[in-house]
Amino acid sequence: MIKNFIIAILCVTSVSIYAQNSTVSPYSYFGIGDFRATNSVENKMMGGLSVYGDSIHINLNNPAAYGKLGLTTYTAGLSRNEYNFKTNTSNESASVSNLDYLSLGFRLGKGLGMGFGIMPYTSVGYNFQSERTPAGQGTVRESFSGSGGVNRVYLSVGYEMIKNLSVGVTSNFNFGNQEINTIQTTEGVQLGSFNRVSSRINGFDFNFGLNYTPKIDGKHTLFSSVIVNTQANLVSRNTRTIGSFSTANGMDVEVIAVDLEAKGLARTGVQIPTTTTLGLGYGLDRKWFLGAEYSFQELSTFENELSPASNLEYQNANTIRFGGYYIPEYNSFSSYLKRVTYRAGASITTSGIVVDNKEINDFGITFGLGLPLGQGREFSNVNIGFELGRRGTKYGDLVEENYFKVNLGLSLNDTGWFSKRRIN
To answer: Which pLDDT tens digit goes with each residue over 239-253?
Structure first.
């Protein structure tokens, strides 16, 4: 019954993830869009830490954590994002709802676990305009819009080689489409011009993880991890059309297919540089945990030959995360609130994106609750989380993006699918 339900959800939601427009951020204009967080709600609410893993939750960003997985776990995440965009002259709001991931993990044997799933990787969704008035001419208006993004399906394996030392690998297949449209009109001119670029993107990358989690004094655990997400070598198959249209009715007047083959741009490569993450944490099992991580990426080597941005450069990117959780009394029979997991964290990101010589940075705080699903199913839980943050700046005619996100995750555990039930 459960197995059939999960298969049905996989089929339906894989189509939903592929079709959805997952962002409204103007910063998805750059590169191949906004890179989406690949953590589960549980880890995301601890500032996005990947160093922590346990036996009942799937760690989507650290494949070595599958070596500790003790129960079959299926998990899904949803989010509702509220945005407020500020410039020197305007203030606008927007919102979007997303399916963030759908995953299944299970134990194959002692110290050996596996998982697979689907999630968005990048998202494109912007629509903005600019105006200028050249000397002796009418006002020139340019409209920029984009949609689509890259999704991924993954397969992960983790293995505990020796006690407290686990390794893992994830293979990601990335796929998706991206549409970019630029429209220009001039006041008093009956015809406008357009430039349309369509790209179909796919390719592989790999994620390697190493965890070392020794006991310190017989009770506390030291968590340490190294995660390397290798360079993604993506292939973009592109088409481009230019032409004119009537400003009176919007109908195309002339459409010309650009010969990108002759320019060597019909099939281009998109290399997303390697990201390395170092993590360290300390805690008491089923009671509390505190941790921190540092990620860095040589984004200065990133190029996208069809990118419309001319005022953009890339520098190396890095992120600092810290967070943790607290459980008052995980096995309390007298108080439900004592069994709730309380999580909080923060992150500071230097994105590596520089627009008009101004860095686009991101700061966010997170907090949330892990709610057990009844006394009889103490391993399953609903996770609710909140994010508050700010990205970019309104200075220099740029956009300051303030966001509030509500995250909902469901983590269900089962001992009867891939493992035999035992009666004590």
So the answer is: 999 999 999 898 999
